[in-house]
Amino acid sequence: MKYVDEYRDAALGRGLARAIVAAVRPETRYNLMEFCGGHTHAIARHGLEDLLPGSVRLIHGPGCPVCVLPVGRLDMAIALVREHGVILCTYGDMMRVPGSGGTSLLQVKAEGGDVRMVYSTLDAVAVAQAHPDRAVVFFAIGFETTTPPTAMAVTRAEALDLRNFSVFCNHVLTPAAIQSLLDSPDVRDLDGGSVPLDGFIGPAHVSTVIGARPYAFFAEEYRKPVVITGFEPLDVLQAVLMLVRQINDGRAEVEVQYARAVTRRGNEKAQALVAGMFDLRKVFAWRGLGPVPYSALTFNTRYATWDAERRFALPDAAGRDPRGCDCGAILRGVKEPRDCRLFGTACTPEKPVGACMVSSEGACAAYWTHGRFRDARHGEDRQCADHSPTP
Amino acid sequence: MRRPFPHPLNLSRGMVEMSHGAGGRAMIQLIDEIFGAAFQDPTLARGDDQALLSLPAGRVVMTTDGYVITPRVFPGGDIGSLAVHGTVNDVAMSGAVPLYLSAGFILEEGLPLADLDAIARSMAAAARAAGVSVVTGDTKVVERGGCDGVFITTTGVGVITDDRLDIAGDRARPGDAILVSGTLGDHGVAVMSQRENLAFETPILSDSAALNGLVADMVAAVPGIRAMRDPTRGGLAATLNELAHQSGVGMAIREADVPLKPAVRGACELLGLDPLTVPNEGKLVAICPPEHADALLRAMRSHPLGQEAAVIGRVVENAEHFVQMETLLGGRRIVDWLAGEQLPRIC
Asked: Is the pLDDT of residue A391 over 50?
């Protein structure tokens, strides 16, 4: 398959793994956070941790859009269906995340609520066209990558004069989240932080939109190297090598490994579309990170009529995180999935308690689905078909 | 014997009506002119409420399955052929020779008779090709909205005539070889490509097929096959996990050896699906002692439905019953059951 196979080549992968082993210094530890859930998923799906030396530790960051949405926002979406009787169009993963009291949109649908899974924002517009007598709301979530498609949907709905369509906007911003992490007591050296962070495997798709520029601040002010990285396994391995070299050299630069798609300035058309439709929220509560200033978007005055929050006068819901759930600490990199006492017992992908167990990009789901043999208690975990020793 | 009805069913413009399930003349006419005409089976044509059958000597195998797939017609098949293939395959996975099918139809008021006729003819053709007879059936009609067009339930009966065969999900042993009969995920991708909200163009056809001929060749070559299963809903991942749990073992497979069509890989990449969890309707997984793996592979590859068969791994000891995979890059990961619903109403 073109544009995929060349980034999964086994021989090249082994070569990169050998180069990483050769590059790491015995006295140095390399704590690298992959911000994006896409990277977390790729690392688990391709078993990349098996190819890395022990001194390279990958810390899973908060870049899974399903995971960082706080319970309160999900409660608001549920209220749209239950109390306002709207048709709610949502991406599939959001349907399984439990809200306060454990109710998910999937359960709301089973009760008779009209919740529909869509693959694209324009599908939601089509639902609004097909049901002119019903209010149709698109449950918009995600980082900078998914915001332009939401803006496209509104542009299209406006052109079609679809007054029954609106958007429940939960779009969030990556740089604000990274800064919040770096400023958190968990990370700051001054506060005796428990999460050592030596560098970032930077976002792939987000960076195609916002470009490489926004990360320069973190490299310069916080002295953290950033390598913007594609989602294929060779991309991740090459990025690890680039980060190891930066750390060895004492450099803290923004480098673009994902050069086939990311430019310094990003997609300026998409940026303009978003800038013309949205304003920054003063503050937005993230699961795990808590309230983060200027970290999310809301419709500007010109587009206020498309805002479901205003149209239905939705009150902010505080929401309650599930008891015992460590999603928050896991999203900050403070804990690993296996540190959560619900992991694999009360919380599994079939019956998730926390959001990190829902999306395949969530650290808990990725770890449970692909990596839990690493915890196998019986020492049999090296058994794989004709397994040859990895470099 | 065809009963004379004053006006034959209008197969071009007619629709299923409530009276077609009410037990009166309309129902008899529907059964005669659609099902009787399609299946042309002497036992069915007797018009009794049951089929009286003679079975050859051996162990009798029986299975049942419901079919609710949407869309009803998909590239490479339709709900009618699928309702035959799926049940024939479930019988065949025991090593039995499938012989008879029953067919229960739940029809929605308003279903075009032309659609029902096409489905019945497709079922009949599939049954003839698989060498099984549809010997009894049932028809119910529900109000508009009570079901989605047509739901079919088929029950299959077959006989294991070879006493040496002992094929079951709990018989896999550490060291055994794991084989698949061909490329994975074709059915799921073909059906998804037709879904209203997905519609994409792909050259992929469903692999829907009756596997009893392939199985007959396999058990003739290697009577010591330990386990067979067709990886339908949940795909290869679900089947290997089921077998691992039933047998109390682990499985270790290699990603590089799992046969996949490039177009299926491409579609799965695009849609974010793991091809190992995508359903198949004309493939099987077989587990056999390692010393018989070559003979079994040869037998499979000699059959038209097994030309792309491959050994994909082996059974291992593992207290957790994990199915593990060595990835293309040499890392390892678990191949887990599918969580949640990925492809509703896929069969």
From this structure: no
